[in-house]
Amino acid sequence: xxxxxxxxxxxxxxxxxxxxxxxxxxxxxxxxxxxxxxxxxxxxxxxxxxxxxxxxxxxxxxxxxxxxxxxxxxxxxxxxxxxxxxxxxxxxxxxxxxxxxxxxxxxxxxxxxxxxxxxxxxxxxxxxxxxxxxxxxxxxxxxxxxxxxx
Length: 150
Known about the structure:
- By secondary structure, the protein is mainly alpha-helical.
- It contains 5 helices and 2 strands, in the order αααββαα.
- Strands 1-2 form a two-stranded antiparallel sheet.
- α2 runs antiparallel to α3.
């Protein structure tokens, strides 16, 4: 097997999705596209933009979890040998890792949103300050804690 040229047995999940979705290019290039996005997210986790990397990880892993649950992929993935014969399954390990990464990324986003120097905190406050007050929860009604004065 040539390492530089992926074979059909090295990416059965992507080929399965390509056949299911009708996007034939996904079987050949989907792994590179997803892998590049994962690499960018991973690199960002080690910079001051770690909040952006965590948001990217949530998006990527949400897609992975969605495709495992709602497409023919399924939770348990088959494993193949070099000859292309199925030799077993991963027991759901790939799906479990996607869920674990998703949960870890959510924790990082929440943590970054609470730190004043965090990018997610900065983005949320900048975005929320641009919203009209009505959308921010200030309905213009009375404040019962202050005796009805707003």
